[in-house]
Amino acid sequence: MPLFGKKDSGKKAKSKDLKELNKQVSIEEKYNLHGLLGTGAFSEVRLAESKESPGDHFAVKIIDKKALKGKEESLENEIRVLRRFSANHFDGNSPNGTRLTHPNIVQLLETYEDKAKVYLVMELVTGGELFDRIVEKGSYTEKDASHLIRQILEAVDYMHEQGVVHRDLKPENLLYYSPDDESKIMISDFGLSKTEDSGIMATACGTPGYVAPEVLAQKPYGKAVDVWSIGVISYILLCGYPPFYDENDANLFAQILKGEFEFDSPYWDEISESAKQFIKNLMCVAVEKRYTCKQALGHPWISGNEASSKNIHGTVSEQLKKNFAKSRWKQAYYAATVIRQMQRMALSSNSSSTADGRTSVNISSDNGNGQVSVTVEPASTGPIEPASAAQSTSDTTSLMDSVQSVSPRNDIKIHQRISPNSSFSSGQAN
């Protein structure tokens, strides 16, 4: 019986989205699988070329079923969410029966399954990660940052309208579509995303530096968590370092819970007051006062002319290089790798609780699918302290000795036993 051939809990029939995994045709019949683009703990991504339309290229995420055992629900959820934004998904419930697509959301195009693996055929994105591209630029202004954030807000607002909360927005999940200077930004990695119709969200998940206070407080939450994350990203885009940092993990979480951040001099001296006010409205601890995506899109720093044209590239790129070194995990959509593969092939034509009462926490190190299980103290005793996802999957014994990274900045040191790029998800149901 296929991995996804079981019925959904509480439903009489399988979801149409998941049914489509049970295709008899093999992926090799439709695609030529080429070079490796990236790897994770339980999956790899390969460049693929259509046999029906030579010259059309895609990224295929290949997930090992054996490694995924016990975590099938996570992948099912990711596929379900991605299908909402697929060009092949038809929404019969919408007024005009429209297809739910957005130009800034990476699309899942097809799914295949055999006895050993699940294959996700994705839109190929070749432009590289957000921060890498900013560092490479010769000029970078507030207006550039405002344009980037507007694209992210529009895409996330669209997601929210469709009842989807991303829950893990961070720079690593923001990719340029192509190497072109005017390339659009794409949102990827829906491994922790959730649909509102799937029930109340209360799981502590996300990436520590970008997670909203209500998530750390283990309160029920919703779309506003994505807005907080966009606020954090906006902050970094204007100075090159994160708003929350501390040598002690517990203090880091305490800062986030209180919403304690500063616009440090001299890094923020040349940044407009409009930009600072915009960020404050997104990173507001009181959820009821926090902007929605629509409100953020209406702010004059986004919709008006209040973003400065002053070149801030020197300061921002220097801080980005110091504070955001590449993860040890290979990046699935790394642009140079894609280009090299194409050139090589000459493609011009052709949680539950444990016995001791601790809470199980999963650390996602594989774009939302691969998870390393560790144990942490329950919420009542303090903030969650997951281990670094940069560890070996077998090395989960010591939280205190996990990855420590020190910022080369003289005045700000970031010692984090939690990798700032590692997603985490508590072992609860939602």
TrEMBL record:
GO molecular function: ATP binding; calcium/calmodulin-dependent protein kinase activity; calmodulin binding
Region feature Disordered, mapped onto this chain: 349-430
Reaction(s) catalysed by this chain's protein: L-threonyl-[protein] + ATP = O-phospho-L-threonyl-[protein] + ADP + H(+); L-seryl-[protein] + ATP = O-phospho-L-seryl-[protein] + ADP + H(+)
SUPFAM superfamilies named among the record's database cross-references: Protein kinase-like (PK-like) (SSF56112)
Top-level lineage group: Eukaryota
Family: Belongs to the protein kinase superfamily. CAMK Ser/Thr protein kinase family. CaMK subfamily.
Name listed for the protein in its UniProt record: Calcium/calmodulin-dependent protein kinase type 1
Protein kinase domain boundaries: 31-302
Presence of the UniProt keyword Manganese in the record: no
Record flagged with keyword Nucleotide-binding: yes
The protein's enzyme class: transferase
